[in-house]
Write a structure and sequence with these properties.
Belongs to the peptidase M14 family. This protein is α/β, with parallel strands linked by helices. The protein has a single domain, classed as Aminopeptidase, CATH 3.40.630. About 35% of the residues lie in helices and about 20% in strands. The mean pLDDT is about 95.
C-alpha cells in the first residue's frame, strides 16, 4: 500500500510553507527532562558526565535541550574505546533506554577492559515529540557526513573529533516501527517530492552491517546474543528485510558513510546498527530494552575475543 501524505503536492518537494505546516502539527508527547535526564544524572556517581552540546529549540517549543556523553572513569589510552549511541531517532524508545540500561547494569563490568563512551539521547526533541526528524524536517541519521544539515548530528561529530580518540567498536541503537510505514516513509516521500513504496515491517530483531566495511562475524555475534532475549526477524518471501536482501540471518547491509548514517561517525572497524521491532505481539517494551543491552554485550564480547 502506498500512502499519500496530507501535506504538500504529490511530486513536488516541500518548501518552507510545507515544513512550517509539518512543524506546527508536532506535539510534545513525553518528557526528556522527566524520563531521560534524571537517569543520566544518576550515573554521575560512577561515570564522568560531559555536556557536549545543546539544542536551542526555544522558538520551536520553549525548550533548550542539553546533550550529554557518559564516559567510564578509568579511561586509558592503551585500552580499546567503544561508542554506544542511542536516540539518533528520538522516537525509537529502546535505543535511548537500552543505552541507559547498559550504563546502569553492565558498563562498569567492562570498563576495566575498554573505555566506554555512551551518547544516550542524541535527539531529545525527537524523543519528546516521538519523531524521526528534527524541527527542520531533517533526518539526523542522514546527516553524519561533513556537510550534514542536522545540528544533532553535527554536534556529535564535533564532540567525537575533539576527543582525538580511535574507536574499536560502535553500536548504534535503533528500532523499526509500524509508524515507519504509517507516518515517516510517507512524510519523507512528500517532503522529497517522490513516490512512497511501503515495505513489510520485519517482525523481530535484525542488524544493519556496513556495505563499505562489512564485519559479518560481529553481526552474527550480536544476533546470537540477542536471540537469547527476543526473536530474530525472518526474511520475507523475496529474501529481504525492509527492501534489502539479507546478507545472513537477521542481517542486511547499508552503505553507511555514503548515506551519512551515525554508524559512519567514527573510524571503528567494528560497527553495527541494531533494529528492534517494538510493535511485535511477541515482545514487550522491557524485552526491547534487554535486546539492545544484549546486542552491546554480544558486540563487546566479540571485540574482547578478537583482542585476546
Amino acid at each position: 500500500m502506498n500512502t499519500i501524505y496530507h501535506i504538500g503536492t504529490v511530486g513536488q518537494p516541500w518548501g518552507e510553507a510545507e515544513k512550517t505546516q509539518w512543524l506546527s502539527e508536532q506535539q510534545i508527547k513525553r518528557s526528556f527532562f522527566d524520563e531521560v535526564l534524571p537517569a543520566i544524572e544518576a550515573l554521575q556517581t560512577e561515570f564522568d558526565i560531559e555536556q557536549y552540546g545543546e539544542l536551542n529549540y526555544q522558538q520551536v517549543c520553549g525548550k533548550t535541550y542539553p546533550l550529554y556523553a557518559v564516559k567510564s572513569r578509568n579511561w586509558q589510552s592503551d585500552k580499546p574505546t567503544i561508542l554506544v549511541s542511542g536516540g539518533v531517532h528520538g522516537y525509537e524508545t529502546s535505543g535511548v533506554h537500552g543505552a541507559l540500561r547498559f550504563l546502569q547494569t553492565m558498563a562498569k563490568a567492562y570498563s576495566d577492559k575498554v573505555n566506554v563512551l555512551v551518547l544516550p539521547c542524541i535527539s531529545p526533541w525527537g524523543y519528546e515529540t516521538i519523531n524521526r526528524w528534527n524541527p527542520e524536517a531533517i533526518d539526523p541519521n542522514r546527516s553524519f557526513s561533513s556537510d550534514g544539515k542536522a545540528t544533532e548530528a553535527q554536534q556529535v561529530r564535533q564532540y567525537l573529533a575533539g576527543l582525538n580518540t580511535s574507536f574499536a567498536l560502535h553500536i548504534d541503537l535503533h528500532e523499526t516501527t509500524d509508524s515507519d510505514n504509517s507516518e515517516f516513509r510517507p512524510a519523507k516521500a512528500a517532503r522529497d517530492g517522490t513516490v512512497n513504496k511501503n515495505w513489510n515491517i520485519p517482525d523481530g530483531y535484525y542488524t544493519v552491517d556496513d556495505t563499505e566495511h562489512p564485519c559479518p562475524a560481529l553481526q552474527k555475534a550480536i544476533i546470537d546474543s540477542v536471540a537469547k532475549v527476543t526473536h530474530i526477524a525472518e526474511a520475507g518471501e523475496n529474501g529481504e528485510l525492509i527492501g534489502e536482501k539479507i546478507a545472513q540471518f537477521g542481517v542486511i547491509n547499508y552503505a553507511k558513510a555514503s548515506l551519512g548514517l551515525c554508524g559512519s561517525v567514527t573510524d571503528a572497524p567494528l560497527v553495527s546498527t541494531t533494529e528492534v521491532y517494538p510493535d511485535s505481539p511477541s515482545t514487550t517494551p522491557e524485552q526491547c530494552i534487554q535486546a539492545q543491552v544484549a546486542a552491546i554485550i554480544g558486540a563487546l564480547d566479540y571485540l574482547l575475543q578478537q583482542k585476546s
